[in-house]
Amino acid sequence: MANVTVIGAQWGDEGKGKLVDWLSNRADVVVRFQGGHNAGHTLVVGNQVFKLSLLPSGVVQGKLSIIGNGVVVDPWHLLKEIETIAAQGVAITPANLVLADNACLILPIHRDLDQAREAAAQNKIGTTGRGIGPAYEDKVGRRAIRVADLADRAALEAKIDRLLAHHAPLRKGLGLPDFDGAALLAELEGLAPKVLAYAQPAWRLLDAEVKAGRRVLFEGAQGALLDVDHGTYPYVTSSNTVAGQAAAGSGLGPKGPGYVLGIVKAYTTRVGEGPFPTELTDEVGQHLGTVGREFGTVTGRSRRCGWFDAALVRQSVALNGIAGVALTKLDVLDGLPKLKICTGYTLAGQPIDYLPAGLKAQGQLQPVYEELEGWAETTQGARSWRDLPANAVKYVRRIEELIGAPVALLSTSPQRDDTILMRDPFQD
Ligand code: GDP
Ligand code: IMO
Ligand code: MG
Fold it and tell me: Any catalytic annotation for residue 41?
């Protein structure tokens, strides 16, 4: 199978960036297909740390990197991130970075709305405040400005008027000042040439690449439990994060995604609000947060931590068609005497083995745990399966059984090369 799609199987921050970076030396093209700069993907290569939010992680290895039509793009952020990563010694040019000309833009009005809504809400979502939700609302509302519009002043002007007509009452209701459309037009015209330099019909390029036998690696953002349909709605992001979106969000047909590699953290974390059945608010939770350095890349918020939830990941395996997983951050469990895995739940005293759709029911789930022995040895930096303590191997094997998918890769530190390959997703 030629292509591989990497998706997060939990609530994001599973280590997608690290794995995409590692896998990208086996690929020719790396494609983002949803989300925006709400994502935070951290890559550690020697003593260099790259923090990517919008650029596909393949840029670091110099691979052709495509921001697909399914992504919402803040053009100011795009240019800034290109500058930051270039300053770290990575060459980014229109020859290795392509922006789909039909992707929709995130504008300052979206960020304003996102932040004002969160400030006013009684039940906050805990968004990243970067305008993601409002930008997708305008996309499906058919009033978004798209990348290609930057080349057409008349279209841009008319679209800004249409957008402002929609946003004016929303802003008023939230106590925001009127938005200056003329200033926005001038700013967009100013940055248009720089952004348009990267723009082209990305679907066409991808089609040609695939026909030429090139291997494509799709890079998901967020995680399956943040999917707008399948996640813990409304405590989700505003895009489909599941593997199926790789096709629609890039313009490649349904066979495009190929082998689906679910990235799975050896425990569970979540940033922002919403149900989290295995959350730990005790010292074990704090231990996971401290040892795992669980702080958001984008907002710096502490991530909530909890035991591994096999029921959730089993659901992700089904929703995404996961063929194999990359298990990350096993090293964070080093030294914990006992480990718990959630195998299912009870709801009002009755067993249930999946996450029900209703928010109330999700909040009432009681996890059913199985206890395993921990290990005193270190797994950090292990590069071979043989280096793992017996109890760590048992933990991994039990996870495989419970989620119904094999572990194809194991990550044992943030470093690129601290990665154990059991089955090559590109060969499977
Ligand atoms: P992403 O959003 O899925 O790309 O994940 P993030 O980059 O937001 O969060 C994962 C964090 O864990 C990053 O800081 C990585 O450097 C780090 N990381 C990735 N894999 C491992 C691992 O196996 N062990 C440890 N200790 N850290 C890891
Ligand atoms: P990566 O790609 C973890 C969460 C936010 C919030 C919810 C909605 O690094 O895994 P949004 O700004 O998208 O409207 O926020 O989704 N969220 C993430 N959580 N990792 C991410 O990305 C996230 N992107 C958004 O915290 O709960
Ligand atoms: Mg992240």
Answer: yes
User: How many Å apart are CA 108 and CA 103, to the nearest integer?
Assistant: 17
Residues with CB under 6 A from ligand 2: 8, 11-13, 38-41, 125-128, 130, 132-133, 221-223, 226, 237-238, 271-272
Q: Is residue 258 domain-resident? A: no
pLDDT digits (tens, 9 = 90+) for 335-352: 999 999 999 999 999 999
Cis preceding linkage at 234, omega within 30: yes
13 is catalytic: yes
Q: Which domain holds residue 298?
A: 264-427
Burial of 99 (0-12, 13-18, 19+ CB in 10 A): buried
Q: How many domains does the chain have?
A: 3
**pLDDT one-digit tens code per residue, 216-268:** 999 999 999 999 999 999 999 999 999 999 999 999 999 999 999 999 999 99
Please state the length of the chain. 428
DSSP code per residue over 101-137? TTPEEP-HHHHHHHHHHHHH-SS-----SSSHHHHHH
255 CA from centroid of ligand 3 (Å): 27
Q: What is the CATH number of the domain that holds 123?
A: 1.10.300.10
Q: What is the CATH number of the domain that holds 61?
A: 3.40.440.10
Q: Are 339 and 421 found together in one domain?
A: yes
Taking the complete model, does pTM exceed 0.85, yes or no?
yes
